[in-house]
TrEMBL record:
Family: Belongs to the alpha-carbonic anhydrase family.
Lineage: Eukaryota, Viridiplantae, Chlorophyta, core chlorophytes, Trebouxiophyceae
Protein name: carbonic anhydrase
Keywords annotated in UniProt: Lyase, Metal-binding, Signal, Zinc
Secretion signal span: 1-20
Length: 327
């Protein structure tokens, strides 16, 4: 998704170690009234396979560097990422936030996010993520948050397995910091998987936003001004991630997106998954919704795009060294 909220970049910081991983506490405020819908119309009736030929606009969905892709659990094919060139999740703050239900298929957490902390290595002034610059000492720049949203089932897969839920934190690296980026910025998407918890323990991050998800249809719910969203549990404690150059998974399927996919799934309870799926009109609990038969007729839907071929792209993997201690 492309919501280009104001980029509020801070001063640059050089990261020298592997332990600069802090997470955020966010303060909520109303953001819904600021939301200016600019969506292109598309759906998941064909899991995105029809987007290639869709005549609406200059979509790139037929490109050769598309997302999502499958990740293998075996390591033999990955290019290792060293600490000196790993991404850093710091402490972004959210000054205002709202939870938006888009018609039929999507939930997004929008906000006037600000602050620093999502640090991305850049090599040779142009290589965001340093995927093509082995041995080069990176400069770090901050990415700012555009939105946070979900897909059910997951889009990226693990050894061909679809997980219950995948979250995408969409961020931007400013052209001001990296002149090689387009005017709108370079996209970096931070992905996390959710697997259903055996113990049915609620995920504490999802607990924070679930009250604001409108289960009965589209709309936008502004968080109270005194509401805080804490992002500590939005990413796994195990910071192992796979990174590669891909695309947006929705039209216009823009390429040149740096993906950072954390490999250790988070836990979600069945109740939370149902609440999110219901709100996105995917797997509907029609027994407990007022729509009744009309609800049931919608059947199973998904909001995840079909897997795309790697087409020769390399996958890179960061495995935290022993002693790595995210805060
Ligand atoms: Zn997404």
């Amino acid at each position: 998704m492309l919501y280009l909220l104001p980029a509020l970049l801070g001063a640059l910081t050089l990261f020298t170690g592997c332990n600069a991983f802090e997470l955020a506490t966010a303060t909520g405020n109303e953001v819904c009234k600021q939301y200016n819908a600019s969506h292109v119309a598309f759906d998941y009736a064909f899991r995105g396979t029809d987007w290639v030929t869709n005549p609406k606009g200059a979509w790139k969905c037929g490109g050769s560097h598309q997302s999502p892709v499958d990740y293998m659990t075996s390591d033999y094919q990955y290019v290792p990422v060293n600490c000196s060139a790993s991404v850093q999740l710091g402490a972004p703050n959210v000054s205002s936030a709202g939870v938006l239900n888009l018609p039929q298929w999507q939930i997004e957490v929008l906000g006037s996010f600000k602050g620093n902390g999502l640090a991305v290595p850049v090599c040779n002034g142009t290589d965001v993520g340093c995927l093509n610059s082995p041995g080069v000492q990176p400069k770090y720049v901050y990415a700012t948050i555009a939105n946070y949203h979900f897909h059910t089932p997951s889009e990226h897969t693990l050894d061909g397995e679809y997980l219950a839920l995948e979250s995408h934190l969409v961020t931007l690296v400013s052209q001001k910091d990296v002149p090689a980026c387009p005017a709108a910025g370079c996209l970096v998407v931070w992905g996390a998987w959710y697997r259903i918890s055996n113990s049915q323990t609620n995920n504490t991050f999802l607990d924070q936003i679930e009250p604001y998800i409108n289960g009965s249809g589209a709309g936008c719910t502004a968080l109270p001004t005194d509401k805080t969203i804490n992002l500590v549990d939005a990413f796994p404690r195990d910071r192992t991630y796979v990174t590669y150059s891909g695309s947006l998974t929705t039209p216009p399927c823009t390429e040149g997106v740096l993906w950072v996919s954390f490999q250790s799934p988070l836990q979600v309870s069945s109740q939370q998954l149902l609440a999110i799926s219901n709100a996105m009109n995917n797997v509907r609990d029609c027994l407990h919704t007022p729509q009744g038969a009309a609800c049931a007729s919608t059947g199973f839907q998904a909001d995840s795009r079909m897997l795309q071929d790697l087409n020769g792209r390399q996958l890179h993997k960061f495995s935290p060294p022993s002693g790595y201690q995210p805060s």
